[in-house]
Write a structure and sequence with these properties.
By secondary structure, this protein is mainly α. The chain has one domain: Rossmann fold, CATH 3.40.50.300. Helix content is 51%, strand content 9%. The strands form two sheets. A two-stranded parallel sheet has the order 1-2. A two-stranded parallel ribbon has the order 3-4. The protein is globular and about 45 Å long. The mean pLDDT is 91.
């Protein structure tokens, strides 16, 4: 979890591959109106996000029945994380980085619906989680995945 540009997809794909489990990207489950809104540079509000999060929560139930998986999802507020984890086994991993680093990453992105000006809004609403694995993103994707794997092993002991 984390703001757009924090590396959720890149880390998630590599982590899932290293663990030999499926990877899912929450962005693939946005409805058309939300995608159109974001393409126009308009941030989603709770009424846009809640149906999306409920859909993801039901998907997590299905995915959990098949075993472990990795989901890249912003989950910026505690109530969003609560909704995703309701009746679900979920380990949240927060990819934490500075506004400047993430803004620089977004400036280099091509062909993605997220607009850089929406980053400020995401940082404004971000409620940094307390009880989760927090990983600083100012390092390689490989190192981030190693740190996550190590932390997950400690949690499962």
């Amino acid at each position: 979890m984390g703001v757009s540009g924090s590396g959720k997809t890149s880390v998630g794909i590599l982590l899932a591959k290293s663990l030999s489990i499926p990877f899912y990207d929450a962005d693939d489950y946005h409805n058309c109106s939300s995608i159109q809104k974001m393409k126009k540079g308009v941030a989603l509000n709770d009424s846009d996000r809640i149906p999306w999060l409920k859909l993801l929560s039901s998907k997590i139930i299905d995915w959990n029945l098949k075993g472990d998986s990795v989901l890249a999802c912003s989950a910026l507020k505690e109530k969003y994380r609560n909704l995703l984890s309701k009746n679900n086994k979920v380990a949240f991993i927060f990819l934490d980085g500075s506004y400047d680093l993430i803004y620089e990453r977004l400036a280099k992105r091509k062909n993605h619906f997220f607009r850089k000006k929406m980053l400020e809004e995401q940082f404004t609403i971000l409620e940094k989680p307390i009880d989760c694995i927090t990983i600083p993103i100012n390092q390689s994707v490989e190192n981030i995945c190693l740190m996550i794997s190590s932390n997950l092993k400690k949690q499962n002991k």
